[in-house]
Amino acid sequence: MQVQDDVLTTVADWRRAGKDVAVATVVATWGSSPRPVGSMLGVSADGQMVGSVSGGCIEGAVVTEALDIMAGEPPKLLSFGVSNEQAWEVGLACGGTVEVWVEAVA
Amino acid sequence: MTPAVLEALVDACARALPTVLARRLDDNRHTLLVAGERVSGETLPEPVAEAARTALRADKGAKVEAEGHTWFIQVFNPPLRLMVVGAVHIAQALVPMATIAGYAVTVIDPRGAFASDERFPGVTLRHDWPDEALAEIGPDARTAVVTLTHDPKIDDPALEGALKSDAFYIAALGSKRTHAARVERLSERGFDAPTIARVHGPAGLALGAVSPAEIAVSVLGEMTKVLRQA
Lengths: 106, 230
Known about the structure:
The complex is a heterodimer of chains A (106) and B (230). By secondary structure, chain A is α+β, with helices and mostly antiparallel strands. Chain A has helices spanning 2-16, 59-70; strands at 21-30, 40-44, 49-51, 76-81, 97-104. Chain A has one domain (2-104). Chain A contains 2 helices and 5 strands. Chain B is an alpha/beta fold and 230 residues long. Helix content of chain B is 39%, strand content 24%. In chain B, a hairpin with a 4-residue loop joins strand 1 and strand 2. At the A-B interface, helix 1, strand 1 and strand 5 of A face helix 1 and strand 5 of B.
């Protein structure tokens, strides 16, 4: 999947330019979800984004977590879906569930 | 993920090598396998290594439980490939669209006036005959071959080369009438009906496409439909 390569290349460029970076990866999906397993979102500490882990529904929440993880929190498995929208402000409008692994490049 | 793992991944993708990144999610350990060789991290337990091989074949990541740990297998296969035969106007629309869709595109046309760097900046161009080009390239199950010249002298050798390969999508531009004539010629060349039926002709979904860009959309649409078996 070429799109993954673009995310990796961009994230590597950011890091070489001296930025803190993190990578979020879809590790599992159930039901209807917009992006398949393996889809990636790259995030820089100054708030740039490349790629996606959904159709735009959960990227905001993932970036927030990614910033905390870049600041020193451990990597984290996030779960998003209609079933737990109380736990998360955001949910997938399409009714699917998606698990996203967020880790810093460090 | 360490910076070294990230750089190794970027390098493996740039060299179009089949690559697997296995993450042990409990403690965020990474093992990187490039073209079957472990280039970083610990040796994977056999069930995870087996899952990695399966994931590469299916081009699909997976979560695996083994030895009390949860692993996530992520696949980085070389990009899909598209061989465009005929550096014509429609190719100028199809090439950038297919590139955005993730294909590594090669344009094959022995006519230098068509396959020029001015018309296709930054695109891999070949000026040999398509049968020779395809024999050298070796289309596999992640390769599509589309002929666009309308000239049997160029299209037919390309189609013959494609039909001898595992290409997942083979298509030829042209009207229903020219396609009927094409089927006739391929039949005379010894290809049987089920083999000839692999050629999608006229190429593309029936969208009523008129402009080169619209025809490119219909071809890319059909290619996607076949790839995703929809």
